[in-house]
């Protein structure tokens, strides 16, 4: 592929997935500016790879793999305050959900997902927040598709158990 073909493929990838990569990064790091920086670095590294003659078969999975590696690198460098920690300290982001009950249930579900082991949390986020297929998740994480499917199943089962336990606690309080 020539320089113009690389440029075109890169621009198409940016248009197609920049917003999704940003949402993925933001959900994982809970910091808007850091998420923007991670997206910028993701595309910078992707461009450098293409410019060096690299070939990418699945650009979406390639971008998510770069973004995930950057997120992991960042978390190793410093442990930033999470949104949950800020909320525990009294910070509440301004939000006007149209359906407050759904927003509360969604927040509870996200809280439970965030409490899972990283291997389950990561695949659930990629599948249900980022809307990646198990095959794409497998490419991002460099795992077999079957492994990803098993992790999704087990992770969702753990969330269900946690939800049921919380419902039982709530019933006992009544």
Protein described:
- By secondary structure, the chain is an all-alpha fold.
- 78% of the residues lie in helices and 0% in strands.
- Helix 2 (32-51) crosses helix 3 and helix 7 packs across helix 8 (145-173).
- The longest helix has 29 residues, at 145-173.
- It is elongated.
List the helices and strands and how they pair.
Blueprint: H1 3-29, H2 32-51, H3 59-77, H4 83-88, H5 100-114, H6 118-129, H7 134-141, H8 145-173
Can you describe this structure in just a few lines?
By secondary structure, the chain is mainly α.
State the main characteristics.
174 residues; mainly alpha; Rna Polymerase Sigma Factor, Chain: A; Arc Repressor Mutant, subunit A; 78% helix
Query: In the CATH classification, which architecture of the largest domain applies?
Result: Orthogonal Bundle
CATH class of the largest domain: Mainly Alpha
Look at the structure and give the mean pLDDT.
80
Q: Spans of 5+ residues with little confidence (pLDDT < 50)?
A: 79-83, 91-98
Radius of gyration: 18 Å
Based on DSSP secondary structure assignment, what is the total number of beta strands?
A: 0
Which range does the strand content fall in?
A: under 5%
